[in-house]
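Let's sit down with a protein and look at its sequence and fold side by side. Please make up or recall a protein chain and show it to me in full. Label the sequence line and the structure token line clearly, so we can match residues to local backbone shapes. Go ahead whenever you are ready, and we will take it from there.
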Amino acid sequence: MCTPEALARYDLVYNQRLISLQEATLADESTPYEPGNLASFLEDALMNLSHELRTPLAVAKGNTTSLIRHDHLLTREERIEILGEIETACDRLETVIQQTLQTAHVLRGSVSLQREPVNLTAVTQQAINAVARYFADARSAPVEIRTDNTPCIVWADADWVERAIVQLLDNAWRYSPEDRPIAITIHAN
């Protein structure tokens, strides 16, 4: 069985590769990847993807089997808990599939970027709000945005920046201690 630490490493590597690929594409849309690194990237991505899909699928399948076979032995609270675990596993599958689709769009070069001046602090707050809805009951400590009170305006596609921040926050939320705040530091150069 895979430990939470191993899952965190796989998830982090997958998201880092996705973000690196997105950054490479944003930097030079004519060359979304370096041909020499493509085989290695695809091999790693497919290995991570298969793991990312297998883990929540195993949780959902195992819990569904338990409900079917042992429903008559379970209390209402136990059934609700199992259904919650199935829902969480399905949410994870949905996230992995969405990330995979985003990666495919980046690789295909079919990403149409809407570059404009973007307030990084505002986009980060939107990402925090999106992730907070998903983890509303799971975290007692807040996410903190630390700034030097200087507006940080970047020339980027706000949607893609928000997606990248959401992916990073998703990892932080899943794998950091619940009672510790997650800090994001933003400062303009």
